[in-house]
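Narrative summary of target 7.
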Amino acid sequence: MKRFYSLSILLISITFLLASCGLGDAKEKAEKQAAKYHKFLKAGNENAMLDMVHEDGMKNAEEDFRFLMHKMATETTISKIEKSSQFNTSIENGVATVRLNYRLYDKIHGRITEEIVFQDSKDGVMKIVALNYK
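Modeled conformation, tokenized:
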């Protein structure tokens, strides 16, 4: 009986370790994509920003993304970007979703809070499924 519990604990520990490694990889991939998005945002490259939207987002909310990204690309001059320590990572049915928060500093509007959600896409790259600014 003692051997069974030891084996069970070992298997649960290994499963948890493997699952957490996947979450860490997803967070790293999302952070790289966020850095790329912010580079395009600072440059005002609206088309490149739109290319980073997940295929489901373009199918379900294309006009919302176009409007928001056009507004951000044309009406802001971002001088500084700070990553918040808050993030949320989950994997459901093998698809990773990562929610990241940033503080953007605009020369005209001051501090802007950004919440950006990335999800695995069909081409294997994390892409934007939700984007909120306050």
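Confidence is low (pLDDT under 50) at residues 13-21.
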